[in-house]
Amino acid sequence: MIRRxxxxxxxxxxxxxxxxxxxxxxxxxxxxxxxxxxDDERDVRRHLVHLAEALSLTGAENEVARMTRVxxxxxxxxxxxRVIADGHEIVSRDAVVGLLSGWPAPAGGFSVDYAGETIxxxxxxxxxxIGLTARVVSKDITTGxxxxxxxxxxxxxxxxxxxxxxxxxxxxxxx
Length: 175
Hints:
By secondary structure, this protein is of the alpha+beta class. The chain has a single domain (40-171), classed as Nuclear Transport Factor 2, Chain: A (Roll). Helix content is 35%, strand content 35%. It is built from five helices and six strands, in the order ααααββαββββ.
């Protein structure tokens, strides 16, 4: 006959279901606070990511998709935005959006992304200065290789009616 020796009380006790549920609830609450607690720097980064998505084009864009993209692009710029790119100056949101929406997508489209963002908020948190590298990635239709055009940029954004908009954008000279 095999006799079992009961384990000491401390060894028998595992982690209770209540403790696990409490831990999961605390993690969920922390995630919700992180996601929805207002943070201007995170809002600026999110704004830039959404702008990159709106600027990216697939190879085939129908008229409805183009009109939707144009409407969305307007939300990212102040009415009196000032853009300086390669020595050319554009001084209104309508002109910027018109130029961006009229740009034909190459075969296979292209994607826009940013790298190395540095965000400097003003003391009153109503404006932000951003430095970043903007990259446009497309495919060469003859070789199939990726073609990357990267530009250093300086942006200024302002919080207008609770939303961040670009007030100035400038490509910086290449060394």
